[in-house]
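About this split. The held-out portion is used to measure sequence recovery: a designer receives only the structure tokens and must propose an amino acid at every position. Recovery is the fraction of positions where the proposal matches the reference. Here is one held-out target exactly as it appears in the evaluation file.
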């Protein structure tokens, strides 16, 4: 039998350790911004940018079933900017590139569960001849639903860090915004760096263009988690067919794990 004093001391240590662990977890939490590219009929583990429509449906169902607070990227950016308290289990959904299946497969599922998302458009690839990208009509219909907010993924797909001309980088950032706003009749406030790559000069240009939020992939620890012009995202791949993996992605701790796993 433990003596009362020893038992009380042990309980006290346990409670303090639990409190410290809880505070550590809270300090490392980052709102998960989930990044999708393509939806396909059948998942293929070899193609990390494609998730099956069935998996996407189960993932969105999971978010609703377990009462996640799904915000648009603009709403999340505004909360971070104004330093508002972000509710627990908050997530945001994003799609890059503007594949046709975002309209044909993802959009019906978003409507089914009433989940908002941001779609980043490569302007010059809209309605391209291959037929694998959304049309302007598709984009307008998604925007009109109130669920899908359109953002810029520049004019062409080339990563901005690969472009030598400062004037061309500026055109990609500024003109893509202007074209989208003229086509869609609303302000375009969100920006996605092609391939998630940028540098301080490109980041400053995005701010100067008038965007309110910009997302990358994993810019690293040099950029704070609350930098609204370098927000970190989690790529959703076929491994998230397993809802346990998807849940880990939505805990808000994945960025901490990703940035420290090689230590």
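Reference sequence for scoring:
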């Amino acid at each position: 039998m433990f003596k009362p004093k020893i038992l009380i001391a042990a309980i006290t240590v346990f409670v303090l350790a639990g409190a410290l662990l809880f505070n550590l977890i809270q300090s490392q939490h980052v709102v998960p911004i989930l990044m999708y590219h393509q939806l396909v009929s059948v998942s293929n583990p070899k193609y990390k940018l494609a998730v099956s429509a069935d998996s996407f449906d189960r993932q969105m169902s999971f978010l609703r079933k377990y009462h996640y607070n799904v915000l648009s990227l603009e709403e999340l950016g505004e909360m971070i900017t104004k330093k508002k308290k972000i509710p627990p289990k908050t997530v945001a959904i994003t799609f890059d590139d503007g594949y046709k299946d975002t309209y044909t497969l993802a959009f019906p599922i978003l409507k089914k569960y009433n989940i908002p998302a941001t779609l980043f458009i490569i302007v010059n690839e809209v309605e391209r001849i291959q037929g694998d990208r959304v049309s302007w009509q598709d984009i307008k219909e998604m925007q009109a639903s109130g669920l899908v907010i359109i953002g810029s993924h520049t004019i062409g797909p080339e990563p901005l860090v690969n472009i030598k001309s400062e004037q061309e980088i500026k055109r990609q950032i500024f003109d893509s915004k202007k074209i989208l706003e003229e086509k869609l009749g609303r302000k375009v406030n969100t920006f996605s760096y092609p391939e998630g790559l940028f540098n301080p000069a490109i980041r400053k240009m995005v701010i100067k263009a008038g965007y309110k939020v910009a997302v990358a992939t994993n810019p690293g620890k040099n950029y704070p988690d609350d930098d609204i012009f370098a927000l970190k995202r989690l790529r959703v791949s076929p491994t998230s067919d397993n809802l346990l993996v998807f849940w880990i992605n939505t805990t808000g701790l994945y960025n901490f794990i990703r940035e420290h796993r090689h230590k």
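Annotator remark: The beta strands are 33-36, 38-40, 50-52, 69-71, 90-97, 117-121, 148-152, 190-192, 213-215, 234-235.
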